[in-house]
Each structure stands twice: as structure tokens, then as C-alpha cells.
């Protein structure tokens, strides 16, 4: 029979000598593990007589408990020492200046909008702004929307509760009301763009309830579709930074323009990405047309004397195309990892001299 006093002294000495948690755990396994020395003694109890089992069992269990208590106390001491050492090594001298860490960046939507504004500003367009909360006249009626037009319905527009007069204010569904306000307050010639946030009841990979638009308006004498085509093709070539831009106009219908068109740009869809200026595919990219005479009349402009064109495009979608972002909803996810990947430096403001992106 193993001398329990000798075994106890030997195991406790090993526990006391353990200098780290891994060594201590090895001592624990060797003593009270499944094949440990003390566990082995417990397995011999079955071959003893009842009297011996009673005496030796109590002594072995007492030894096991004592060793386990010693191991637990040593483990607590080693963990405390390890924590103290870690805290000592990770101290921070607050009297020193903090190292520079880039925390923020420009959101891709804002970068894209700045790029678009920079291009149009170089082409002679002024920036006009208006309120996000609009009335029915500026958002619909002045833009030649019929009374029962689907865009007026609740499923497409965010309406506020009716006033006592019955009038309902709404969150603008496009930045076209800015064009109306400009035509009402300013005499031709007019050449503006209207960037801003807009709202519609829609949500999927390419639509969000809140999104951004840039709309353009030109009103003057002798304006025709050729001016519109040149303006848009020049913009796309500069925005995508390529001279190989090929476009086509498809007839469409917008209440506020006549004739109306959707503009497609030639692209390559192979390889899981869209490349503008290459390939043989077409991608619808914006809507445009000549300003409807009814819109000019509603704003106090004589359509027999002045003509104009208008266009509108989604800022978020153009940003997705240019910078390879697959899902529009990521722009609203508030994920700093996404922003650190796609974000832009605040010091790299788009301008014609140093470039856009």
C-alpha cells in the first residue's frame, strides 16, 4: 500500500512549485485525473475487506480533498498574479498625446453626390435646395400628376395626418418640387440641379424607403433634346471616368415631361460585375425628357416662349455601379466595418483639378 503521507507531501510540493497554470494543470491530472496516482488508490478499494475499505477509503478521500483544495488555491493565486502582470504591462500614460487613429470617413452616398455636384457645377449648373416635407401642389399638382395617379396612393407615398382643412403634407417622393419652387421664384434662363433626400414606400436590394436623387432642370429659349443628350452623355463620361460611353434613349412616360425617355448606358455584365463603357448589354440608368408645357404654365412660364429639359437619377445606385456595392440596404446598416471598407477620406474632396475619386 502506498504511503499516503509521502504521496501527500510529494503532490503538495509539486502544487507549490507550479509556476504557471499549464504546469499546475499537469500536476492536477497526474494526481486526481482519471489515471492519476490518487484516483488509482481509490480503484483498489474494491479488493479490500470491509474494515480496510472503511479505514483506507476515508484516508484516501481526505487526501484527494486536500490536494484539490491546494490546487484550487494555487490556481487562484496564479490567475491573480497573471492579471496583475497583464494590467502592469498594459498601462497607458495619459500624459502622452494619443496616437492618430482614423475614426470616420465620408459615406459613399455623400462622396457620389459630391462628385455629381462637382461635374454639373463645372458645366454651369447651380445647386438648388428645398424642404423634405412638401405639399400636394409642389410634389404632384404642379408636376402634372392627375388626381388619381398611383404615385399619390398610400402604398407609394408617406403622407402625414390631414390638417383641419383636409390638406395632407407628405415626405417628398422626388426632388422635382425644388424645380417647381425655382421656376416660380426665378425667371428664365434657369440651369440648376436639385440634390437631396427623398422618400417612398419601397424596400429591397435596389430600393430603400429613404434614398437620394440629383435632378436637373434647364429652361431657356430654343432648348431641345440634343442639349439634353449632350448634357447627360458628358456627365456619364466624366462620372465613370471613361470616354467610351454609349447611350440610347427609350420612349417612356413621366407626367412632368413630354416627350419622356429612359436613358440606357452600354455595359458589360460578365464576371459578376457591371463595367460601364464595355460589352454589348444595356443598363437603364436615369429618366429624362422635355419639360411638359403644363408644368411651365403651372409655374408661370410661357411654354410658347421658353422650353426646357429635366432629368433625374439615383445617387445611391450610381454609387453602387461605380464602386461595386452589391446591396443598397448596406448603406443604411450603420456597420462601421462596411464604411471603413467603402468610405472615403474627408480630405479627398472631388474637384475637376485633382479628380473625382
From TrEMBL:
Localisation:
Cytoplasm
Q: How is the cofactor bound?
A: Binds 2 magnesium ions per tetramer.
Co-factor(s)? Mg(2+)
Give the reactions, separated by semicolons, that this protein catalyses: tRNA(Phe) + L-phenylalanine + ATP = L-phenylalanyl-tRNA(Phe) + AMP + diphosphate + H(+)
Show the Gene3D superfamilies listed in the entry: Bira Bifunctional Protein, Domain 2
Provide one Gene Ontology cellular component.
cytoplasm
Molecular function via GO:
ATP binding; magnesium ion binding; phenylalanine-tRNA ligase activity; tRNA binding
Q: What is its main location?
A: cytoplasm
Keyword set, alphabetical order: Aminoacyl-tRNA synthetase, ATP-binding, Cytoplasm, Ligase, Magnesium, Metal-binding, Nucleotide-binding, Protein biosynthesis
One GO term under biological process is: phenylalanyl-tRNA aminoacylation
- Describe the location of the Aminoacyl-transfer RNA synthetases class-II family profile domain by residue ranges: 119-352
Q: Does the keyword Nuclease apply?
A: no
The enzyme's main class, written as a single word, is ligase
Give the protein family.
Answer: Belongs to the class-II aminoacyl-tRNA synthetase family. Phe-tRNA synthetase alpha subunit type 1 subfamily.
Alphabetical list of NCBIfam families matching this protein? pheS
Q: What does the annotation say about its assembly with partners?
A: Tetramer of two alpha and two beta subunits.
Q: Which PANTHER family match?
A: PHENYLALANINE--TRNA LIGASE, MITOCHONDRIAL (PTHR11538:SF41), PHENYLALANYL-TRNA SYNTHETASE (PTHR11538)
Name recorded for this polypeptide: Phenylalanine--tRNA ligase alpha subunit
Q: Which organism is it from?
A: Caulobacter vibrioides OR37
Q: Which gene encodes it?
A: pheS
Amino acid at each position: 500500500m502506498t504511503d499516503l503521507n509521502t504521496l501527500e507531501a510529494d503532490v503538495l510540493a509539486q502544487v507549490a512549485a507550479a509556476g504557471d497554470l499549464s504546469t499546475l494543470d499537469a500536476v492536477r491530472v497526474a494526481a486526481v485525473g482519471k489515471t492519476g496516482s490518487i484516483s488509482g488508490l481509490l480503484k483498489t478499494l474494491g479488493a479490500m475487506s470491509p474494515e480496510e475499505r472503511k479505514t483506507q477509503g476515508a484516508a484516501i478521500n481526505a487526501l484527494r480533498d486536500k490536494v484539490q483544495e491546494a490546487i484550487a488555491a494555487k490556481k487562484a493565486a496564479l490567475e491573480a498574479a497573471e492579471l496583475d502582470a497583464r494590467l502592469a504591462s498594459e498601462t497607458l500614460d495619459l500624459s502622452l498625446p494619443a496616437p492618430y487613429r482614423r475614426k470616420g470617413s465620408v459615406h459613399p452616398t455623400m462622396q457620389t453626390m459630391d462628385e455629381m455636384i462637382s461635374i454639373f457645377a463645372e458645366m454651369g449648373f447651380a445647386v438648388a435646395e428645398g424642404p423634405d416635407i412638401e405639399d400636394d401642389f409642389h410634389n404632384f399638382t404642379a408636376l402634372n400628376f392627375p388626381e388619381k395617379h398611383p404615385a399619390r396612393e398610400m402604398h407609394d407615398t408617406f403622407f402625414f395626418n390631414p390638417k383641419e382643412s383636409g390638406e395632407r403634407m407628405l415626405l417628398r417622393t422626388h426632388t422635382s418640387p425644388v424645380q417647381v419652387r425655382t421656376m416660380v421664384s426665378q425667371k428664365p434662363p434657369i440651369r440648376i440641379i436639385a440634390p437631396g433626400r427623398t422618400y417612398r414606400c419601397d424596400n429591397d436590394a435596389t430600393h430603400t424607403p429613404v434614398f437620394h436623387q440629383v435632378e436637373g432642370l434647364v429652361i431657356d429659349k430654343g432648348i431641345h433634346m440634343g442639349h439634353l443628350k449632350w448634357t447627360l452623355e458628358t456627365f456619364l463620361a466624366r462620372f465613370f471616368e471613361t470616354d467610351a460611353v454609349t447611350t440610347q434613349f427609350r420612349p417612356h412616360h413621366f407626367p412632368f415631361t413630354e416627350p419622356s425617355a429612359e436613358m440606357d448606358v452600354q455595359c458589360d455584365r460578365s464576371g459578376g460585375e457591371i463595367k460601364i463603357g464595355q460589352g454589348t448589354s444595356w443598363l437603364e440608368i436615369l429618366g429624362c425628357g422635355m419639360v411638359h408645357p403644363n408644368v411651365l404654365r403651372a409655374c408661370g412660364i410661357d411654354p410658347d416662349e421658353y422650353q426646357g429639359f429635366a432629368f433625374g437619377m439615383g445617387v445611391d445606385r450610381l454609387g453602387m455601379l461605380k464602386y461595386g456595392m452589391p446591396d443598397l440596404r448596406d448603406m443604411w446598416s450603420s456597420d462601421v466595418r462596411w464604411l471603413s471598407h467603402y468610405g472615403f477620406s474627408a480630405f479627398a474632396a472631388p474637384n475637376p483639378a485633382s479628380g473625382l475619386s
